[in-house]
Amino acid sequence: MRRFLESFYPPKKKKVVLSFDGGGVRAIAAVVFLKQLEIASGKKIFDIFDFFIGTSAGGINALNIAGRKIDCFELEDFWSKENLTQTMSKSFWDTASFLQTKPKYDGIGKTDVLLDYFADQSLGEAKKPVAVLAYDVEKRKPRLLSSYGSPGIKMVSAASATSAAPIYYSTQEIDDGSWLIDGGIVANNPSLLGYSEAKKLFPKHEIKVFSIGTGINRRKINGKNSVKWGALNWFNHDILGIMLETSIFDEIASDIMGQNYLRVNSSTGLVNRRMDDISEVNLERIHLMGMEWWSEFGEDTLEFLNV
């Protein structure tokens, strides 16, 4: 009976989206997880997925895979301690204070690292469709930079803009004169946007979305104590983490896509909630978080992706 029905209504072919959350240095956990997926499947992440989307550091991951066609061993090298140190060089802050008048980092080191890897490559030169989310501060609206919608934008501009996290980095002017900041302020988990874009790109296909996070800070905030907090106290108690919370997006995505959506994420546990902690201890904890994800979600991921 199934074969008879399929002769009249052939099943839709599937396209699979890989969606990366933002989260600064914690985005390395996604790379660790995906490296295990490559080992287990014998396939490159580039070959498994059809469309890549990301926010902030997750956007940089997406651009590296789709733009440079690299495997996760090479992507892990991108996040080397040397590159991270250069990216976060020349801090203007003596101590992390919400009251500082300048961004924490000058961004020069980050731009140099991006140029080393992307050179003069434009989004339109990506090997597969890719998009990253930013926010236009002058137009006061989200901005999607993509290989198909804005092919003339340079990869370096797109990577700089999507990762221009307020407080940490300055607003970025991209090639078309727009001024952009980190898209995490509107959708740190871009899964729903990835699903919507993929429906447009592949209208005759069934869309599946594999979403990978960067950990969620679940440390309890004392409600009674928070009553009297001002800007500095809220900053010290992870107001940025609260603003970038992704659980509601995960719930909506799950409701809309059902079995065509799989999410990998967990509590940050011992990982520092700060997005720029590149100490050896914290980097090791991030690596362990990625490995723990593989232990917990690896089999489900292989089944979901049918690899």
UniProtKB/TrEMBL annotation:
This is Phospholipase. The active site is at 56 (nucleophile), 182 (proton acceptor). One of its GO terms (biological process) is lipid catabolic process. The lineage of its organism: Bacteria, Pseudomonadati, Pseudomonadota, Gammaproteobacteria, SAR86 cluster. Keywords: Hydrolase, Lipid degradation, Lipid metabolism. A motif (DGA/G) lies at residues 182-184. One of its GO terms (molecular function) is hydrolase activity. The keyword RNA-binding does not apply. Residues 18-195 form the PNPLA domain. A motif (GXSXG) lies at residues 54-58. It comes from the Bacteria. PROSITE patterns: PNPLA. InterPro entries: Acyl_Trfase/lysoPLipase, PNPLA_dom, Teg/CotR/CapV-like. SUPFAM superfamilies: FabD/lysophospholipase-like.
